[in-house]
Amino acid sequence: MAQQSILGRISQLARANINSLIDSAEDPQKMLDQMVRDYTSNIGEAEDAVATNIGNLRLLEEDAEEARKASVEWGSKAAAASKKADELRAAGQTDEADKFDNLARVALQKQLDFDAQVKRFEPTIAQQTQVVEQLKTGLNQMRLKLDQLKSKRDELVSRDKLAKAQSQVHDALKSVDVLDPTSEVSRFEEKVRREEARVKGQQELAASSLDAQFDSLEDDANKAEVEARLAALKGKSS
Fold first, then answer.
1. Integer Cα distance of 172 and 104 in angstroms
2. Residue 157 has what pLDDT?
3. How many CB atoms neighbour CB 64 within 10 A?
4. Is this prediction's pTM over 0.90?
5. Domain for residue 210, yes or no?
6. Which residue from 72, 68, 96, 73 is spatially nearest to 84, judged by alpha carbons?
């Protein structure tokens, strides 16, 4: 039952669809961090369980090997006792020969008992070997999933940092658009132009006033010339 529970947990974790879990999470990064912690913890528990099952399998194999060795040993004892019985019987020592034949029978019974033990171990060892292989496979799948989780988490963190950096640049660009410094320069330039125009206007006004003054001087000169010529004419006629 415990083995089935371990296998079930390992299989469930190994089949977990990381992408669908990420898609359904409100905060994928936090979810992935938690999944990494959970997977790491579960892998630690699974490793302990697998190690325990492997240890139990090795004990069964050792017991089976001991039984096989005992079977061989008792078989050798039976053969030795039978041989001794044959030698004694050939020497005419029937009673002693019967004793060694009986010893051979006891040894053979021991051999049969150990052979039976070996046979009883075989299906249990075969089943336990299969379970251990399944546990190892599931554990390796969990480790691969953990690597995928860590890779996905690192990728997500990098993408999140990049997105935040891009958002900061975008916000900075928007603030530049809203507070365009060139608009301030344009207003200042317009002010300078108006000042330059005002100065030009003053210059033109001053120039026109000066021209009027020179025109007035020329009019006075003409009048004086006229009067001078008039006086000359009058002087000639008198």
1. 100
2. 79
3. 18
4. no
5. no
6. 96
Length of the chain: 238
Place of tokens 């691969």: 144
**Treating both helix axes as pointing N-terminal to C-terminal, what angle do 94-178 and 28-90 enclose, rounded to 10 degrees?**
170
Residue appearing with tokens 């051979």? 104
Task: Encode pLDDT of 136-182 as tens digits.
Answer: 888 888 888 888 888 888 887 788 788 888 888 877 777 655 555 55
The pLDDT tens digits of the residues spanning 217-231 come to 677 777 777 777 777
Any domain includes 49: yes
Q: Please tell me whether residue 180 adopts helix, strand or coil conformation.
A: coil
- Of the two residues 142 and 56, the one the predictor is more confident about is 56
Pairwise CA distance, residues 189 & 192, whole Å:
5
- Show the tokens assigned to 119: 């046979």
Question: Whole domain around residue 119: which residue ranges?
Answer: 2-158
Residues 58-69 have a mean pLDDT of 96
Looking at the domain assignment, is residue 230 inside a domain?
A: no
Which residues, at least 6 apart from 23, have a Cβ–Cβ distance to it below 8 Å? none
* Range 6-16 average pLDDT: 58
21 and 145 Cβ atoms separated by less than 8 Å = no
**Nearest alpha carbon to residue 117 among 73, 70, 58, 59:** 70
Residue type for 37, please?
Answer: R
Confidence of residue 29 (pLDDT cuts 50, 70, 90): confident
How many domains does the structure of the chain reveal? 1
Does the residue 140 lie in any domain? yes
Q: What is the CATH number of the domain that holds 119?
A: 1.10.287
DSSP 17: -
